[in-house]
Amino acid sequence: MFREHYAPLFDQIAGTDLFPWLNGLDKRIDSVFEEANNGHLPAWKGALEALPQVAPSVIDLKSDAIRIGGPTDLTGFEATRIRNELKAFHPWRKGPWDFFGVEIDAEWRSSFKWDRIRGAITPLAGRLALDIGSGNGYYCYRMAGEGAKLALGADPYLLYVMQSLTARKYLPDSCGAWVIPFGIESIPPAIPVFDTVFSMGVLYHRRSPLDHLLKLKQLLRPGGELVLETLVIDGDADDVLLPKGRYAKMRNTWFLPSCLALERWVKRCGFSDIRLADVSTTRIEEQRSTDWMTFDSLSSFLDPTDATKTIEGYPAPQRALLVATA
Ligand SMILES: C[S@@+](CC[C@H](N)C(=O)[O-])C[C@H]1O[C@@H](n2cnc3c(N)ncnc32)[C@H](O)[C@@H]1O
Fold it and tell me: How is the chain split into domains, by residue range?
C-alpha cells in the first residue's frame, strides 16, 4: 500500500485549506501504483525497501546538493548498499543529491535553475506551493528548505515519484516536501488555495498551453503567484515556433513562444503583474550525461557544428522564467 508512505502528508494537508483533497487521496494514490502496469515497479519497490534504515545526522535542504545524512552515519557495508539501491532508480534526471556521502550527480544541475528562481519569486516561508511536473521533487525539497509550509510536487512518471520516496525515507515526518503520482489532468479537484504554483519545463509539452495556464490559475488563490518556466525563441509578440516533429530530439514538444508571445498568453489567461525574471540559454554545464544518467544529453541534441542550433536546425534551447499574479 503506497498510501503508507504518504501518511505524514495527509496529516499536513489536514492543517491547510487543501483539506478537501483528503477525501479519497489515499485510495487514489494506491490505485495509481496498483493499476500502473509498470514492469519496473517491483524492482523499485524492492530497492526502496532495501535502502538501509539509518537515522541521518544532518539534513540540509538549502545546499545545491540536497544533503541527507553524512558518510560517518553508515558502515562501509551500508554505504555500498545505499549506492547500489539508489542506482536501481536510474536515470536520475534532477539533482544533485547527497545521501550519506553518496553523491548523485544527476543529468541536470537543478541548483542552477533554483538559483535563477529563488531571488525572483515571493519568499516561500509559510506558503502552500504546488509544483506541476515536479520530476523527483528536487525543487520541492529546496522549497521546503526555504520554509514553505507545504511544497507539493505532482508528476505522473512513477520512477521520479519513487526517487522522491527514497529521500522521504530519511526525512522527518514534519518535512513538507512531497511528490504525488498525478499528472495535471488527474490531480484532485482544482481548488484555489495555493500561494505559489510552479510549472517548469512543462508548458512546451502541452498541446493546449492556454488550457494549461488556465488550470494553473484555478489552483492559485486570488493574489497567488505563478512561476512559469518554459522554452522560448527570439522574436516579437506574434512569433511562436511549432516544430515539424522533434525538437532537440524530444518527441512531444509543441509550442515555443517568444517571451513577448508568452507574456501575452499569460495576460490573456487573466494573470497580472507579469514579470520576465530571466532568460537563459541551456549550457552543457547544466545538462549532461553522468554516471547517474547514462543516456544521451544536451551535447547530442545540438548541431555538432553549430551549438546555437538543435540537431534539427531549430534555435538551441533557451528558457524563460516568468512570474505573474493570479
Ligand atoms: C522537462 S521535465 C521538467 C521537470 C522539472 N519541472 C524541471 O523544471 O526541471 C517535465 C516533467 O513533467 C512531467 N509530466 C509529464 N506529463 C505530465 C502531466 N500530464 N502533468 C504533469 N507533469 C507531467 C514529466 O514526467 C517530467 O518530470
Answer: 2-325
* Ligand 1 pocket residue status of 206, Cβ below 6 Å: no
Could you tell me which residues come within 8 angstroms of residue 46 by beta carbon, excluding any fewer than 6 positions away?
Answer: 88
Verify whether ligand 1 is closer than 6 Å to residue 183 (CB atom). Answer: yes
CA of 105 to the centre of ligand 1 (A): 19
Q: Is-above-0.85 flag for pTM?
A: yes
How is residue 205 annotated by DSSP? G
Instruction: Cite the beta strand spans of the chain per DSSP E.
Output: 59-60, 66-68, 94-95, 97-99, 102-104, 108-109, 128-132, 150-154, 177-180, 194-200, 220-231, 240-241, 256-257, 272-281, 302-303, 306-310, 318-325
In CATH terms, the fold of domain 2-325 is Rossmann fold (3.40.50)
C-alpha cell at 72: 560517518
Maximum Cα–Cα distance across the chain: 60
User: If you measure from the C-alpha of residue 264 to the centroid of ligand 1, how many angstroms do you get, rounded to a whole number?
Assistant: 23
**What is the average pLDDT across 307-317?**
98
For the segment 134-154, what is each residue's pLDDT rounded down to a tens digit? 999 999 999 999 999 999 999
Ligand 1 pocket test, candidate residues 94, 140, 155, most atoms within 8 A of CB: 155
Compute the distance from residue 155 Cα to the ligand 1 centre, in Å: 6
Instruction: Ligand 1, residue 183: give the atom nearest the CA.
Output: 20
